[in-house]
């Protein structure tokens, strides 16, 4: 997998990504809207799972590298969720991202996500892409809105992998239909 934007390279996982990814998983601010920090073993297992999904589906969450420096910024991509308990809107393809704190506030998540939407709709022929996060993760929801996704209160759901009294259980679902994305995409000029 190799996609590019003006500032970013979206590429396959490499062994050199394991250390910076593990550092992200230990940053309390990066992991604020997740149930817990990630141990090194859990972090490596997530990379291994992403690589397996890439082999099976042809896409997954992949590293985002800054073109100018080669620096690992985080990850983004498309994925078919595979929780032990089904989501209320399964089957689906989700778009997601997680960035190191040093990469926040620079528009990288939106830039990378737009390229993944293009890939999902134009290359994979998907009809819909979803995104979800805990109700309190307003920064991630802002990215979802910037890339054209919409939410409806009736789509909100309790995440099935969290206890009903967990502070992060309430999630919002955002959706983007191919027809809405197509309408929002600029027409190429010749």
Automatic annotation (TrEMBL):
InterPro entries: Acyl_CoA_acyltransferase (IPR016181), GNAT_dom (IPR000182), N-acetyltransferase (IPR051531). Residues 8-179 form the N-acetyltransferase domain. PROSITE patterns: GNAT. It holds the Pfam family Acetyltransf_3. The keyword Transferase applies. One of its GO terms (molecular function) is acyltransferase activity, transferring groups other than amino-acyl groups. The keyword Glycoprotein does not apply. Keywords: Transferase. This is Protein N-acetyltransferase, RimJ/RimL family. It comes from Roseibium suaedae.
